[in-house]
Amino acid sequence: MRPAAARTQLTFVRTQLKNNTADRLESRSALPWPIQLAVPVASLITFGIHLLFSKKWPPLETRSYVLLFWEILGVSIVLSIAQSFWAGLRQWMRHMWPIFTAAILLLGLWDVITSGFHLLPLPYFPGPATVLRSLISDRALLLDSTWHSLVLLLSGYTLGVIVGLVSGVCIGWSTSVRYWGMPLLKVVGPIPATAWIPLAMVVSPSAIVSAAGLIALAVWFPVTMLTASGVSNTRASYLDVARTLGAGRAYLIFRIAIPAAVPNIFIGLFMGLGASFLTLVVAESVGVKSGLGWYVSWAQGWAEYGKVYAALIIMAAFFSTVMTLLFKLRDRVLVWQKGMIKW
Amino acid sequence: MVMTNVAAGSALRVDEVRKSFAVPDAPGTRRLVLDGISFSMAAGELVSLVGPSGCGKSTLLRLIAGLDLPDAGDLLVGEEEILGPSAERGLVFQDPNLFPWLTVRRNIEAGLVARGVLHEKRHEVDEFTRLVGLGAFGSAYPHHLSGGMSQRVALARALINHPKVLLLDEPLGALDAFTRMRMQDEVLRLWENRRTTMLLVTHDIDEAIYMSDRILVMTRAPGRIDRTIDIKLLRPRDRTSDSFLRLRSQILEHLHFAGKAADV
Ligand SMILES: Nc1ncnc2c1ncn2[C@@H]1O[C@H](COP(=O)(O)OP(=O)(O)OP(=O)(O)O)[C@@H](O)[C@H]1O
Ligand SMILES: [Mg+2]
Fold first, then answer.
1. CATH number, domain at A201?
2. Size of interface A-B (CB pairs under 8 A)
3. Beta strands in B67-194 (DSSP E)
4. Is B114–A343 a contact, with Cβ atoms under 8 angstroms apart?
5. % chain A with pLDDT above 70
6. Residue A3 located in a structural domain
7. Integer Cα distance of B258 and A231 in angstroms
8. CB atoms closer than 10 angstroms to residue B100
């Protein structure tokens, strides 16, 4: 599953790059009317759907949902005006508007299915208005949970990355470390970190510490594996050239082998990040008494499914933000890999 | 351009050097690649090494660079035996092998960083970047460069250490004919400025005649030095002059390649 995930990420990156060039070519021309109007029209449609069904199904306090549409409508009109003066914004809108439109229409579809025709059983599938209300009414606890998840994720991830880089470089560089380390890595690595949960609960004094350790373990394996393979596959001719330039061992490791392995290391970091999200949520819902994972199972215990979905939305935004930041970091570190300007 | 610090080269002596490699298909057996190579070069000499593909030219250069050790025989720079790689012996391959994660400037200064002398010699980085005509490309990454530019960066990177011997393994082999001729002049200019001892492996007889003081011809594997041809033409040499062309056909005849391709 892990290599497949990495491949998907790579394809994703490549598509992103392609889109960027296409956008740059188009950015000069004006934004066509259908694109400009798509978002306001979609929000009016979805709003209409909501009005239609909220009359049919009255006892919901849905002011925030209604407000949301007025906001979307207002913002999209303001942006439509602003984009004629601002090429960067126009390019962004050209890229994002179709996606936003689809997202808003999906909200409408969701409304139709749940509050409209009750095609899905309540209380497990509340309508968007209910979820938004939960999101707003419980915002303090959600924010607090997000904060706890963030701290736990970052501490576990950082620990796993540091240990993984060190062990990966050692295994990749030294044949004797590889001889002893590889079998261990092959046997212990593939065990999902979550499988250690029962043991971790017993061994560790605090659930938070054991959760951070499990996240670190989940990250450690892919980072070690990819770092080791990157370092050991450093082109021999780079090392030869460096030797004839007077390089010692430190230079060969830190200035040749590790930079040469960076593209590989990033694949390991992405795979590790995916594994760390999974471990975080599972660890929070079974042991740790805070964080988004805990919030979801807690809300589910009270059958407050609006809150469950609210937490899932926060989780999606949170995780994809973290993922995007890692992509940004990668693009910055790997400028030398891209063929941006050609002389 | 006037070089301020001309680093004189050193004499190189190769004495009865033998080298064999294990044959992967037949464990326990070894194949002899170099069978008693002997020659010497005076300080500041530019010598070409030609020979059929697979005769062990690159192997010999790796031995001189210190990247491999011979089975038997001696290799000496000046009075010093070659025991391992050193910044005194620069090596440039056919593939420039620039470090892709470093800019042109940082590639050129790699030798100074590796030896821990960047601080004292930082001024030389600009000097060498300009020397190879890449002043404007200091902050470009290698994937932005053409083949000829990359090879010039590789030359500057090797030269910044002021090596006593510069080993060139078909450095211009991958370039098109025009770039190659321009680069030959460029290498000659660097050599005349610095008087580095240079050993140049090439497949191109014209290049060997145009550039070197002497041509060493190797036999088919296992390689030995078959003969030495002195080139007494005055520099700058004219590729179309009668004496050049006469020498060329003589050498080709020697090599029993007359009437075939000019490339060995
Ligand atoms: N590390 C090695 N292990 C095993 N065999 C090797 C090794 N290096 C070189 N050889 C063998 O030694 C022989 C000589 O190789 P070498 O690269 O020195 O030839 P060359 O004269 O440079 O050829 P070319 O002109 O094609 O570059 C080849 O048959 C090659 O397969
Ligand atoms: Mg060769």
1. 1.10.3720.10
2. 78
3. 72-77, 80-81, 89-92, 165-169
4. no
5. 88
6. no
7. 49
8. 15
